[in-house]
Specification:
The complex is a heterodimer. Chain A is an alpha+beta fold. In chain A, 28% of the residues lie in helices and 23% in strands. The chains are: A alpha+beta, B alpha+beta. The complex binds flavin-adenine dinucleotide (FAD). The site of flavin-adenine dinucleotide has 31 residues of chain B, from strand 2, helix 2 and helix 7. Chain A: InterPro entries: Ald_Oxase/Xan_DH_a/b, Ald_Oxase/Xan_DH_a/b_sf, Ald_Oxase/xanthine_DH-like, AldOxase/xan_DH_MoCoBD1, AldOxase/xan_DH_MoCoBD2, AldOxase/xan_DH_Mopterin-bd_sf.
Chain lengths: 786, 266
């Protein structure tokens, strides 16, 4: 492919194998004597287990074992953990109920695993799972978060009275209240952030293999962070000590956060493989994915914005209730707190912010991080209330935003974050120009002549990526550090292997990371291979989520490259009898500045390994490792402008133009970045218009298949108009900010602001289905579509 | 999926005798409804008798003022047929709007009407066009064939062999798709017969499957124009109501789609 450095639109190296069907996913792995697992799942949202009769199942052909929660607990397998401690405002720790990988006593959501059948074939396992008789005593269920907190509501966990997990706050309440007392205008808005199902293309899967002789486990699994999986499996679930457990996350077909977590099925597969003495494979079907992959979002918020007489924002007061489902998933506690409320300042200079967050248990699937994780919730709230305030005070929404923008950096917000760099006017200007903001009135009247309601909505989002620094997140309750590691191995022939703790499951690391090496040493990207996803190969890593692989993962590679470069230069200087400071790397060669003396990168690599002639005292080899712990989050930001046409007869919304102007800092591969933005925007538009995980009052997921859960498709979205501006991130060596989630974070409010503008009614909740929009567009029905 | 035994029938008679000797057999058309149902373990036939390779069940022909479509003809074949595009343009639109390309290249007209999903598109066309369903045993008028939600007059071992559509003077179909499944939330087929009789049939909206709207039919008989139906709304009493649309919303869609269908028919 040649030398393709930073900024090149290099085609993705991994695509050949994906496009030709040669990807190797967990379900492609086959081991001798492999068995299959099928889970027996609760059909009830809340019930006591009075007994499990497995006798019929055990007698069926091919069945090796039927295992239950009682055996699991008896074998000492630990309860599932939540890795981020949150304290309530009264200082008490969060109220966490016990979650067991197989539940022996009380099921709390439809789909919860109560037993597993291990059999020779998948069909036999499923047939036998159907034959396991579980005697349930149904209990009343609660799915609505307000209802869950009401007196007399069914109680899920004895540890959480009133189903409240914590009652947390951030910001200065008294100062914020004072701002409201002296406000010239107060805008109020109630917001629902709908519940979503992540739906990666590849469902979750696990293949566990216990080696009786070595007492060693291997787990192939669909993970975004195999080292974190190994850590949690060994430290908390007591499956095996870390050196006796290898976790391999091979090709993984999308995650969107849902594959960060270590779920019951992976734990059970490992445990069962030791129990039966054979490898155990489990592959989720789509129904299981709907019922058991951690869901996303699900907030209800009441918010108020205070303005002074000059329309400057003086205060923001927020009360949020977040539904965490039946159990606390691995990072669930951090999402509606530190990943959400710390971004309530948006792009604006808001002197006073106070936010109260209560999280509750309900008889629904657990909720955790999903593409954006907290930042979409913050952005939707901020950008909806900003738009509403501008309309109320009669200012252009663009000018109202501009007036309140943060202008100088670094900027300390009242909610922990310190924004390092940005230029919010630049992205706003770029978006307004691209969408022809000034020409909108003419387009609106032209649309009206065709019977269509046209609207324009803006969203000026900010988000935080590359979650960091470890010491800071530790002080806020995180159970892990959030650095990244890398190792650069230059082979004797000069080819380069980069081992990274980041994990690619759609992001294209094999290409972008290779571009970084290509830029640095002038070598062909084909001479570079990126190794990831195997705890036996890569020493350690925190994995990929929160758009951290560029800003954190690549920074670790840069640090390792610095060390490799320094050593290579020393060797070259020694061989060419020059001074180290005169060596320059250019086009794959190490040159002595101002002379024609040079050595190819390959010659230097070979010299490092032959070790015939190295500088005095230097160790042979050319291989270096590094850990990188950033000093701050990064702050990608931008303006999204969405223009819609609503058909008032049906309520159908068509997005006729969508401009995304993003500042991602330094961009390595614009094509890959555009792909990330396309995907993110489409997921955000899906949330705004189509997607909703709906439960009935008994806790049955009504939208448990694609017949009822509306995923966005190509014809639901426009051809996007993407622009980038650049302010360099000062916090990392490459100046990168991250681009993986921005699209999903910034787009929902742009869409809803556009529709509410079109129909002249601000009361509209997500998803803005055609029926809701149709109702909201009827004159005199202003509240109907909430 | 539960285990099942697959049979490929070479002729209609062959299929019928395979069915007679099966314990709990099912005919397989394009498999676009039956196979997903089996994969979800909601159906467990002991034997699947595949009709797709029976030559007599394929093809589109025109004779004596009618277009005859073999039961195993796929939606894609109907959508792209020159005969259908010229004689029954509404039917071509309808077939071209079913599901996605993969579904259209496998799913068949016989399978669709035998299944009679209340949100399926074809039933509206058969009723509005006054089609006749031919089976290996008899002929049935469309309105006698569809008997309720997922219910038809077919006996368990009966095979749909073809559907015969009298060529109308005008016809058109307008559908508001369900955003998730893309089946019809409300689909309205309007047809003006060669004898000037008007029929308006609605799918997707009714609790009992396809139904006709008499008031729209008489309005259109005297004034074939979108305005004629614009003010006519169906009662929401017997309409479906679900997370995608209330009965009242579906009633609105029926009027809007009827208007658009008449406009499209010209
Ligand atoms: C993703 C998706 C989207 C879809 N969207 C739409 C849509 O928008 N609109 C729509 O109308 N439909 C839609 N469908 C359904 C599709 O049109 C199916 O093709 C149709 O419903 C069934 O036809 P089939 O040939 O696949 O029949 P099968 O699935 O093979 O069979 C269905 C039933 O009919 C019986 N059967 C089949 N052929 C015969 C015959 N000749 N005689 C007697 N009985 C027979 C079978 O025994 C079975 O009970 C969709 C399906 C999918 C999977």
């Amino acid at each position: 492919m040649g030398v393709q450095g930073i900024g090149a639109r290099a085609l993705r190296k991994e695509d050949k194998r994906f496009i030709t069907g040669k990807g190797r996913y967990t379900d492609d792995m086959v081991l001798p004597r492999m068995t299959y697992a099928a889970f027996v799942r609760s059909p009830h949202a809340h019930a006591k287990i009075k007994g499990i009769d497995a006798s019929a199942a055990l007698a069926m052909p091919g069945v090796e074992a039927v295992l239950t929660g009682e055996q699991l607990v008896g074998d000492g397998i630990g309860n599932l953990i939540c890795g981020w401690m949150i304290h309530s405002k009264d200082g008490s720790p969060m109220n966490m109920g016990a979650w067991r990988a197989l539940e022996p006593e009380t099921v709390r959501f439809v789909g919860q695993a109560v037993a597993v059948v291990i059999a020779d074939t998948q069909g036999q396992a499923r047939d036998a799972a159907d034959a396991v008789v579980v005697d349930y005593e149904e209990l009343p269920a609660v799915v609505d978060m307000s209802a869950a907190m009401a007196p007399g509501a069914p109680q899920l966990h004895p540890e959480a009275p009133g189903n409240v997990i914590y009652d947390w706050e951030i910001g200065d309440e008294a100062a914020t209240n004072a701002a409201f007392d002296s406000a010239a205008h107060v805008t109020r808005l109630d917001i629902t952030n709908n519940r979503l199902v992540p739906n990666p293309m590849e469902p979750r899967a696990a293949l566990a293999d216990y080696d009786t002789a070595e007492e060693h486990y291997t787990l192939y699994t669909t993970s975004q962070n195999p080292h974190v999986a190994r850590l949690v499996l060994s430290a908390f679930y007591n499956v095996a000590p870390e050196h006796k457990l290898r976790v391999i996350a091979p090709d993984v077909g999308g995650g969107f956060g849902s594959k960060i977590f270590i779920y019951p099925e992976e734990i059970v597969a490992l445990w069962a493989s030791k129990r039966v003495g054979r490898p155990v494979k489990w592959v989720s079907d789509r129904t299981e994915a709907f019922l058991t992959d951690a869901h996303g979002r699900d907030h209800k918020t009441e918010a108020e914005l205070a303005l002074d007489a000059n329309n400057k924002i003086t205060g923001f007061r927020v009360k949020t209730v977040a539904n965490l489902g039946a159990y606390m998933s691995l990072f669930s506690s951090s999402v509606p707190t530190y990943l959400y409320a710390t971004l309530l300042s948006g792009q604006y200079d808001i002197p006073n912010i106070h936010c109260n967050v209560k999280t509750v248990y309900t008889n629904t699937t657990p909720v955790d991080a999903y593409r954006g994780a907290g930042r979409p919730e913050a952005t939707f709230l901020v950008e909806r209330i900003i738009e509403t305030a501008a309309r109320e005070v009669g200012m252009s929404p663009a000018e109202f935003r501009r007036k309140n923008f943060i202008q100088a950096f670094p900027h300390q917000t009242p909610v922990i974050m310190c924004y390092d760099a940005g230029d919010y006017n630049a992205t706003l200007d770029a978006a307004l120009k691209a969408i022809d903001y000034d020409g909108f009135p003419a387009r609106k009247s032209e649309a009206a002549s065709r019977g269509k309601l046209r609207g324009l909505g803006l969203s000026c989002y900010i988000e935080a990526c590359g979650i960091a620094p470890s010491a800071a997140v530790g002080s806020l309750g995180a159970g892990v550090g959030l650095w990244e590691s890398a190792e650069v191995r230059v082979n004797p022939v000069g080819t380069i292997e980069v081992l990274t703790g980041s994990h690619s499951h759609g992001q294209g690391h094999e290409t972008t990371f290779a571009q970084l090496i290509s830029e640095r040493f002038g070598v062909d990207t084909d001479a570079v291979s990126i190794v990831h996803g195997d705890t036996d190969k890569v020493q350690f890593g925190m994995g990929t989520y929160g758009s951290r692989s560029g800003a954190v993962g690549m920074s670790a590679i840069v640090k390792a490259l610095d060390k490799v470069e320094a050593k290579a230069k020393k060797i070259a200087a020694h061989l060419m009898e020059a001074s180290e400071g005169d060596i320059q790397i250019e086009g794959g060669e190490l040159k002595v500045a101002g002379t024609d003396k040079k050595l190819s990168f390959t010659e230097v690599a070979l010299a490092a390994y032959t070790a015939h002639n190295l500088p005095e005292g230097m160790e042979p080899g050319l291989k270096e490792g590094a850990f990188y712990d950033p000093s701050n989050f990064t702050f990608p930001a931008g303006t999204y402008a969405c223009e819609v046409e609503v058909d008032p007869d049906t309520g159908k919304t068509e997005i006729v133009n969508f401009v995304a102007a993003d500042d991602f800092g330094k961009v390595i591969n614009p094509m890959i970045v555009e792909g990330q933005v396309h995907g993110g925007l489409t997921q955000g538009i899906g949330q705004a218009l189509l997607e909703n995980a709906a439960y009935d009052e008994n806790g049955q997921l009504v939208t448990a298949s694609y017949m009822d859960y509306a995923m966005p498709r190509a014809d639901d979205v426009p051809s996007y108009n993407l622009l980038t501006t650049e302010t360099i991130c000062p916090g990392n060596p490459l100046g990168m900010k991250g681009c993986g989630e921005a699209g999903a974070i910034g787009s929902p409010p742009a869409v809803i602001n556009a529709i509410t503008d079109a129909i002249g009614n601000n009361h509209l909740s997500m998803p803005a289905t055609a029926e809701k929009v149709w109702l909201a567009a009827q004159p005199g029905l202003s509240q109907a579509a909430e | 999926m539960y285990e099942t035994t697959y049979h490929r029938a070479g002729s209609v008679a062959d299929a019928a005798s395979m069915m007679a000797s099966a314990e709990d057999g099912k005919y397989l058309g394009g498999g676009q409804t039956l196979l997903p149902t089996m994969k979800q373990r909601l159906a467990a036939p002991t034997d699947l008798i595949d009709l797709a390779k029976i030559v007599d069940l394929h093809g589109i022909s025109e004779a004596g003022g009618a277009v005859v479509i073999g039961a195993a003809t796929t939606h894609a074949e109907v959508a792209s047929s020159a005969v259908i595009n010229s004689k029954l343009p509404g039917l071509a639109t309808l077939a071209g709007g079913i599901g996605d390309p993969a579904v259209r290249h496998k799913g068949t007209i016989g399978g669709s009407i035998a299944n009679n999903d209340p949100a399926a598109d074809y039933p509206s066309a058969l009723v509005a066009l006054g089609a006749t369903v031919k089976t290996n045993k008899r002929e049935l008028a469309a309105e006698d064939f569809f008997t309720g939600m997922f219910e038809t007059a077919l006996e368990d071992d009966e095979i749909v062999t073809s559907v015969s559509f009298p060529v109308p003077a005008k016809s058109a179909y307008s559908k508001y798709p369900n955003p998730a499944s893309r089946y019809a939330m409300a689909g309205v087929f309007v047809a003006k017969g060669a004898d000037d009789s008007v029929k308006v049939a609605v799918t997707g909206a009714g609790q009992d499957g396809v139904f006709r709207v008499g008031e729209m039919e008489s309005a259109l008989s005297s004034n074939w124009s979108p305005e004629a139906v614009a003010g006519i709304s169906v009662s929401s009493d017997n309409l479906l109501s679900d997370i995608h649309g209330s009965a009242a919303y579906r009633a609105n869609l029926v009027t809007v789609m009827a208007k658009r269908a008449v406009a499209a028919a010209g």
